[in-house]
Structure formats: C-alpha cells, structure tokens
Specification:
Oligomer: single chain
Membrane topology: Peripheral membrane protein
Helix content: 55-70%
Keywords: Cell membrane, Membrane
Structural class: mainly alpha
Largest sheet: 2 strands, parallel
Family: Belongs to the UPF0161 family.
Distance between the termini: 44 Å
Order of helices and strands: HEHHEH
Number of strands: 2
Shape: elongated
Main location: membrane
InterPro entries: Membr_insert_effic_factor_YidD
Number of domains: 1
C-alpha cells in the first residue's frame, strides 16, 4: 500500500512538476526514474531512502553521470552464478563439470 502511494507521488511529480522545471537532473536515469526503479526493486522503505539520498546528491556542484539503482542481493547472487558458469564453461577439466 505504502509502495503504491510513493510510486503515485513520484508519477505525479513527473507529470505535473517536472515539466515546469525543465530538464535539470544531472544523473542518468533521472532522479524520478531512479526513485521509481528503486522503490520497485527494493521496496518502499529502502527504495525511498535510496531515492532521497540520490535527490540530495543532485545539485549544481555535482558532476552527475550514470548512476543506476544498485542490484538486490538476489540479483547479485544470480549475476555471480552467471559469471561463474560462463568462466567455467570454457574449461575442459573435470573439476568444474557437474
């Protein structure tokens, strides 16, 4: 429920307030897109905190640039498994075969 409310608030910002302010975000993805992804990926509390920290970093004195939402623990584990499988698939020794 809280997650849906937060997502609605960000979406209202995107549709109503953001067009009036113009393209000022120094990061990619934009802070509002980051907020939506963070809330969807990490939940209302952690994702909301991540979005708040990101908005705090977005000011005229920061360099900006590419700043993706961090992976969840499950995504990190899956990515590690994929990398290990790729590395081990090139090996012909029986040690890595399962």
């Amino acid at each position: 429920m809280f997650k849906k409310i937060m997502l609605k608030l960000v979406r209202i910002y995107q549709l109503v307030i953001s067009p009036l302010m113009g393209p000022n975000c120094r990061y990619y993805p934009t802070c509002s897109a980051y907020a939506i992804e963070a809330i969807n990926k990490h939940g209302a509390i952690r994702g909301g905190w991540m979005a708040t920290r990101r908005i705090g970093r977005c000011h005229p004195f920061c360099a900006g640039g590419y700043d993706p939402v961090p992976l969840t623990e499950a995504e990190k584990i899956q990515r590690t498994r994929e990398i290990l499988q790729t590395e081990n698939s090139d090996c012909d020794c029986s040690q890595h075969k399962r």
